[in-house]
Design a protein that fits this description.
This protein has 347 residues and is α/β, with parallel strands linked by helices. The protein contains 14 helices and nine strands. The protein starts with a helix and ends with a helix.
Length: 347
């Protein structure tokens, strides 16, 4: 039975993945987080698209509760599959050895992440989800542990973290999700190495409700297997899925096509970034072809494209003032309000 949090975008549930997402929306609401369905679905789609995600937003806005809700639904909160980690040694602020404590916390976190890697790569665990969350990280961890993982993802081989070594190089397991939260009211910085493999998500300034939360949601039986099978991480597979669901080039693609053409005409290299955008768009639909943001295909595509541009394309562009103005006008005309607002912050 759905509550009011998910009924507005899922009036009827036709397949398992929509049921999973509806459960997540309800679980986040039950955890006392005051946020609409779209930011919750965006987090889910982002993790389908890339294994790394950074949630940045104001303090006490429900970021950690969001991650915990997803972990609970997929894994039941099993310690062997889910690790909620102290992202930064804030506890050492009054210590005489802050640097030493910070290094110790970093190595502890790296060791736990590597332990999850070793579990996730086992063949018998291929359909299980493993998740680590570095809570309340500082800018040092952004260019530290997260960027270190992103660099090794680019090389398609994971060998070490914070000086700790695996027995042998391994591919980053597709069933391992590495998330982090950062308390900040502004999200106008980027790290070039990080953004190529990490979705940078601006979490809204929501708050926890004064009422008591209803408690953790139960694990969804079969949910983690469903999630693993539903992930699309390859641009070619994304194009094939979108073509199957939407046809060759529906009219709803026109605003996105105009923006890409504008950037290409200005000399921007959008080829690799466009692949990431298409992957995000493909993950905005279930395998059965149902939209996760909205049941109407055109509306679902518009929301997904707006978010993909804001989180995947814009952080990787270096724009002249004239091109920024042109792009802003195009985003506003296309009613991509999330991207338009993000472009202003990247100025």
């Amino acid at each position: 039975m759905l509550n009011a949090a998910s009924q507005d975008i899922f009036p009827e549930i036709a397949d398992g993945e929509r049921a999973l997402v509806a459960r997540l929306i309800d679980a986040v609401a039950g955890a006392g987080v005051r946020a609409g369905p779209i930011p919750v679905v965006n987090f889910y789609v982002a993790l389908k698209s890339k294994p790394l995600a950074l949630l940045a937003g104001p303090v006490h806005s429900g970021k950690i509760a969001l991650v915990e809700s997803l972990a609970q639904i997929l894994t039941g909160g099993a310690r062997v599959q889910c690790q909620m980690l102290v992202g930064h040694a804030w506890w050492a602020g009054r210590s005489e050895s802050v640097a030493l404590c910070t290094e110790a916390q970093s190595r502890l976190n790296a060791g736990k992440v590597l332990a999850l890697v070793e579990e996730a790569i086992q063949p018998e665990n291929a359909n299980r989800v493993y998740l680590a969350c570095l809570s309340r990280i500082s800018p040092a961890e952004v260019v530290g542990l997260l960027a270190e993982v992103a660099l090794q993802l680019q090389a398609d081989s994971l060998l070490s973290l914070s000086g700790l070594q695996l027995d042998r190089p391994v591919r980053f397991p597709p069933n391992l999700l590495l998330t982090a939260t950062m308390d900040t009211d502004r999200f106008d910085w980027v790290d070039a190495q990080l953004v190529s493999h990490t979705t940078l998500i601006e979490w809204p300034a929501s708050s926890t409700k004064p009422a008591e939360p209803t408690g953790p949601a139960p694990k969804l039986v079969g949910g983690e297997q469903l999630f693993v099978r539903a992930c699309v991480r390859d641009a070619r597979a994304a194009r094939a899925k979108l073509r199957r669901i939407l046809g060759a080039w529906p009219a709803a693609f026109s605003p996105l096509a105009r923006i890409v053409a504008l950037l290409k005409d200005a000399g921007e290299n959008t080829a690799s970034v466009l692949g990431d955008v298409l992957v995000f768009l493909a993950n905005a639909w279930t395998s059965a072809g149902h939209g996760l943001f909205d049941p109407t295909p055109a509306r679902n595509l518009a929301i997904a494209a707006d978010l993909a541009l804001a989180q995947t394309l814009l952080p990787r562009l270096v724009l002249t003032r004239a091109l920024r103005r042109q792009l802003s006008n195009e985003l506003i005309e296309s009613q991509y309000s999330i991207s338009a607002a993000a472009l202003e912050r990247f100025d």
